Amino acid sequence: MTLTATGGTEWPNPEWSTLIVRRLLENAEFKLSFINRFADMMNTYFLPERVIGVSNQFASVIEPEIQGQIDRWAAPSSYIWWQQSQDVIENFATVRPAIQREHIRTKFGITGDINATLNVSDATHGFVKINTVEINSSTPGVAANPYPWTGIYFQNIPVTLKAVALPGFVFSHWSGDSNSTEAEITITTTSNFSVTANFVPDAPVEVEVPIYFWIFDSTVTNDTPLTTLNSRFEVPAEGVLQYESCLIGYPFDATSPNWRKASMERRNSPTDINYIPEANSNIPFATSNMRGLQIKQPFQNGTNENAMIFNVSTAGYKDIKFAFAAKNELAADAITVEYSTVSGTPSWTSAGLAQTSYPLTAAYQLFNVDLSTIVEAVNNADFKVRLRFTGANMTEDLGNRVTFNNISVKGVSLNLSVNENTKLNFKVFPNPVADILNIVHQYDSVDYKLFSIDGKLIQAGLLINPEINVNGLQPGIYMVQFTTDGKSEVKKFIKK
Q: Is the pLDDT of residue 416 over 60?
């Protein structure tokens, strides 16, 4: 490189004029900064397409004056010569970068180039800064929508990357060839690399989780009229399904003519619709031994009617969602949904519900009742949901039925809906983790819940040992909620 040559006495770089830069390049830190700044500029300001674009802009301004210049001063020699000079500039801009990089490699003993590919989870959430340049549209030579972006750098020259979050978001983690949770990282490699900066909203962590689940498997007595059925999975308190029959005197014994009429009974009709393995000890549906629950004709008797009442405390939860699978087997046309929020005798209402009647079909389908807009459903120990039935002939008694399965209630924990910066003091390591996630804390009794990043509850329990085995998890980002003494803290970690 002429810039660092010694012994020269004339243009362009006599030895005295390069003394300072030569001395600076003896400093290892400055040398790396020089090489990376050179690469940064070649990947942005001096990209061939940008140099050609700037040259064309200048040319378009002076082009109308060229012929007048020639006529008056006889220079340039001709208009064609001037046009050809623009081609020379374009060719120089195109071939020069490879020559410049060869100069750098030769001067500093670098073996070869590498491609650095950068991406972001969402360009509206943040961007990446590589060494000295920000990869966004404010940097000359960077496209308006740059991601994924690729630049040419040098083998074994450390490249510094920094994830920069935009207002309203925070950096979460890197993915690709790095899974670090540090916003600023350094990569030194001899091969191409690709990384993505992942950003998340800078807001409370809100995760929807199951808080009740009714399991209708072979442990539920068959061919027996039921009056109540407790939830098999619950978080705030025991969930109770209470059944009201339209026939006075229900339940009846086998000697009654009303035996197994207008009744709630187990039925062998499984479906995987709305099945939640994590609410059933992580048992896959295929081996869950699921059955079903039937409501039998008749559905009305005078002013009385069959009704399913779900007593589901929502204490500590908000954004309540009630869901189930159901099908009509020649008994009813639709299900009517109401709720009550008071203690004592229920006061049934459908106020605020977007939908109150859910048409049934002959095949199982999923029904979702969104109660998240009901203010009184939040943190309410007395919350109840009632299901009733409508149809053309609700007094008909032919032994037909409506069948239910996989009834669930989900919500967002009010404790989980807090920023990670709480008064509790839990530490998790290593992060990222391959198999055992160690937990450091000072509390006597700790409950934990492990969630996927999309809010799915994976496992829960009492933290008996100061560790959680995550070997069976797929690679990705997860959250674990620790609860003790009525307080909770959420920690994020990455499974390698």
A: no
